[in-house]
Amino acid sequence: MPITNTISRRSVTEDAQEGFRAVALIELGARMQVLESELSLSRDRLIRLYREVRGVSPPKGMLPFSADWYMPWLPNIHASLFFNTYLFLRREASCSHLDALTKGYRLYLEHCKRTEGEPVLDLTRAWTLVRFFEAEMLQLTPCCRCTGKFVAHKHDLQKGVVCGACQPPSRAGKTRKAARAVEEAIAAVIDEETSVVAVNEAAAVAA
Q1: With 146 labelled, which of 12, 53, 99, 177 sits at a CA distance of 20 to 30 A?
Q2: Co-location of 81 and 46 in the same domain
Q3: Of 186, 181, 185, 91, which is closest to residue 148 (Cα–Cα)?
Q4: CB 148 within 8 A of CB 163
Q5: Which residues are 139's β-sheet partners?
Q6: Which residue in 34, 36, 41 sits closest to 17, CA to CA?
Q7: H helical segments located in 115-174
Q8: HSE-up (13 A, CA, CB side) for residue 179
Q9: Which residues partner with 141 through β-bridges?
Q10: Are 150 and 163 in contact (CB under 8 A)?
């Protein structure tokens, strides 16, 4: 009897946690396909939660399926900022994939707001970006000027590449300032990751 109660309590707790995760993803703009892929809740319950949170039925349609969307200069800069943040949360903060996705996306939105820039990535694009990296369709390539790492197709050149933030197109106009701010944010993420790695290595040597 006590074993059954323990299993029941754990099941209720896990179910509640899944509900909270679903609400968080829906608030950030997740599509149904994302929810169904990341959570164990039934489709009917996800739809009910979506209607409760957003006040409308979930939209229909296919998810983005082309990695080429992330290659033009402005989407590339925003995708690079998000994915560098996601990687930092995964590697250095030991976040789970889902926590890194939601926290990384919130940090990305906060940066856009702080720099008075419009977000280019929605949560579905951010989630799809991670999937493309997991499928080894994309890689991070270092810029030879700012040393920041930017999203590129797998097997593209790794040396002598200049990122879109360092060399924006002439039509960039007012978005140049926003691009530079994103570039600085990416560099800050990389510097922080390097510092954490150095501290961890020093601690290991001392031990």
Answers
A1: 99
A2: no
A3: 186
A4: yes
A5: 152
A6: 41
A7: 123-134
A8: 22
A9: 150
A10: yes
Query: What whole-number distance in Å separates Cα of residue 20 and Cα of residue 12?
Result: 12
Q: What is the Cα–Cα distance from 79 to 200, expressed in whole angstroms?
A: 28
The DSSP annotation for 58-76 comes to PPPSPPP--GGGG-SHHHH
* pLDDT, tens digit, 9 for 90 and up, residues 166-189: 888 876 655 555 556 555 666 655
Are 39 and 103 found together in one domain? no
Same domain membership, residue 31 and residue 128: no
Position 60 in a domain = no
**Contacts (Cβ under 8 Å, ≥6 apart) of 120:** 74, 75, 78, 79
CB 147 within 8 A of CB 165: no
Instruction: Give the tens place of pLDDT for each residue, 34-92.
Output: 999 999 999 999 999 999 999 999 988 887 778 999 999 899 999 999 999 999 999 99
CA distance 203 to 62: 48
Please report whether residue 62 resides in a domain: no
36 in the same domain as 102: no
> Among candidates 93, 48, 76, which has minimal Cα distance to 148?
76
Q: Is 120 exposed, middle or buried (0-12, 13-18, 19+ CB in 10 A)?
A: buried
The reply to whether 21 and 103 lie within a common domain is no
> Alpha carbon of 137 to those of 113, 126, 159, 182: distances in Å?
30, 15, 19, 23
